[in-house]
Design goal:
The protein is of the alpha+beta class and 208 residues long. It has three domains: 4-62, Beta Barrel (OB fold (Dihydrolipoamide Acetyltransferase, E2P)); 65-140, DNA polymerase, domain 1, CATH 1.10.150; 147-200, Orthogonal Bundle (Helicase, Ruva Protein, domain 3). It has helices at 65-75, 82-91, 94-102, 107-110, 117-127, 132-135, 139-145, 148-162, 167-179, 186-200, and strands at 4-13, 16-21, 24-29, 43-53, 56-62. It has a five-stranded antiparallel sheet with strand order 3-2-1-4-5, covered by helices on one side. Helix 8 packs across helix 9. The longest helix has 15 residues, at 148-162.
Length: 208
């Protein structure tokens, strides 16, 4: 069984990355978010679960052990397949899942595409008592450990997308601005990235 994988990102898309390992590119299905938006060449390290079916071998990867643990519990729930479990982890953090289960609140799960009311209730019932330590976690510890400059870059990218730029253009502009020496604070980086985008578009502003 492949328990973990690490290496440079060769390609990425919505919900997947291809990681280079010893000259081989391995596709890993991941929750949507930072990992699936990793830039080509960025080093990633993922905890993995290999799901074997009659017609496929699919590798699912997670940035933390907690995500992997919750994934294992989710796919053990009747009616929840690996894709649905990945959808839950794309929408909710392990701590949020644990808190919803502890509160017997199925509403957060019903917001996930492909999870209906009955399945949401079944998730809550099936996971009861299995995630107590995660319920005590909050995402502040992970945020504190994260690179502040990267957090600012992610926030600026999302802001530019909100202004009408494509995700790819926004992230490239932020990366170019950082490489050009733009400040790491949110306001300074936003101004620098926006100037690059407007210059590339002839100063016409955000695309519509």
């Amino acid at each position: 069984m492949i328990a973990s994988i690490g290496g440079p990102v060769l390609a990425s898309g919505a919900g997947w990355v291809v990681v280079g390992v010893g000259g081989i590119g391995m596709r890993v299905e991941v929750p949507s978010g930072r990992v699936s938006q990793a830039s080509v060449g960025e080093e990633v390290s993922l905890q993995t679960s290999l799901v074997v079916r009659e017609d496929s071998l699919t590798l699912f990867g997670f940035a933390t052990q907690s995500e992997l643990e919750v994934f294992g519990h989710l796919i053990a729930v009747s009616g929840v397949g690996p894709r649905s479990a990945l959808g839950v982890l794309s929408a909710l953090s392990p701590a949020e899942i644990a808190r919803a289960v502890a509160a017997e609140d199925e509403k957060p799960f019903r917001k996930v595409s492909g999870i209906g009311p009955k399945t949401a209730k079944l998730i809550v019932v099936s996971l009861a008592g299995k995630l107590p330590e995660l319920a005590l976690d909050d995402d502040s510890s992970a945020t504190a450990a994260a690179d502040p400059a990267q957090l600012a870059a992610d926030a600026v990218s999302e802001g530019l997308v909100g202004l009408g730029w494509s995700d790819a253009d926004a992230r490239q502009a932020v990366q170019d601005a950082r490489e050009a020496g733009a400040p790491d604070d949110h306001a300074g980086l936003l101004r620098a990235a926006l100037a690059l985008l407007q210059a590339a578009r002839g100063g016409t502003g955000a695309r519509r």
